[in-house]
């Protein structure tokens, strides 16, 4: 009771929720007896499943633990110590003498199990809650389930089962936060099947170093125009660029490595160029600063954006129409049995022809010719490899005709979607984050494939270009020697000594 002038206050009435017992506790005793065998069988099955799941996810850890326990029981602590010491010595010797086989057979599984426990399983619940990927309904928490984890050295592939009602877009919006939470540089989201995702947590760049050009192929049969090897993907597989039946648009700022891509294509086509099965045509509006390094590999090459360049494009456009007329009723697409060579048109700076040309007549003619080739040239065996810095529609209004697109280093986020398509940046294609110290690195996307890929083109040096010209033409190349600039004599007033 509260008395006047007293400093004591009556406490509020205690409010607690009534405990709710599980429904099965209210069942009659005879029902529990009848259901007990079923419940026991379910418990055995559930326990077996959990043990099997642990053995499936941590086979190396469980095998080592069981073997160590058995050896300790049979040999004692000292015997176990000697066995562990000998095993460590054998593994160290294996690592020293055959590192490649050790990395292939031993290291991946050990690294996978360690990273699953130390990086993902221990922090999964907390990260899901803080990332707002957990849902609550009627007091029950629904959390995405962590699936298989595979560590490949440079990335971790983590499979996830989403909560009912979630969408991949929710995960894409939180990809950056997930990457930082799990100590990765980036996180990419891929949809495996309905309700299942695969997260790529990248923590090392396998394309940080330049990739030297491989040896030139000796036989024309090694050239597959549908799979031309121009570099290596970040997963270690060859980067095979399709040329037949497509057109390729490469976009990147100055110094991004667009020239490396063009020369890597020429390097891969060298046997076919030598035999004449493939003919390359080039247009370099920058005065030949790029394609002029090895003009001998081209059937024809123009070093401006004027009348000569437009005439070359119109000649190829006319060839496209002539081939279509010859093939009508006989072929639906070009193949080597036609006797016609495959034509590859390399345009080093597409914008100079289509947008920056001050002569309106030449600009319109160039646009019509390029549109004719890109819209009708795939079936007759003609491919355009267009390289450009600015991907805006005002520059290349018909970029949709290039079914294979490559985004090298770009300046802005919006440019990634301009080049590769809407939503590709959210799936991990961060071309705007490519380092300026890694020219040739690119994100690519092929028509009909949802997921982009990251790769790096071969680094073709000046010495490689000399070898390429000699291989294609069969004539030794003699380049002019660059002499040092004469020194000046300060005592003679700066005159050349």
Give a description of the structure.
This protein is of the alpha/beta class and 497 residues long. It has three domains: 38-105, no CATH class; 108-204, Threonyl-tRNA Synthetase, Chain A, domain 2, CATH 3.30.980; 220-473, Rossmann fold (3-Layer(aba) Sandwich). Helices cover 38% and strands 18% of the residues. The chain has helices at residues 29-57, 59-97, 99-105, 107-121, 124-130, 168-173, 175-181, 258-268, 270-275, 307-327, 350-354, 360-376, 413-420, 462-473, and strands at 135-137, 140-142, 145-151, 155-161, 186-193, 196-202, 228-233, 238-241, 248-251, 278-283, 300-302, 342-347, 382-388, 404-407, 441-446, 453-457, 488-489, 495-496. Strand 15 and strand 16 (453-457) form a beta hairpin. The mean pLDDT is 88.
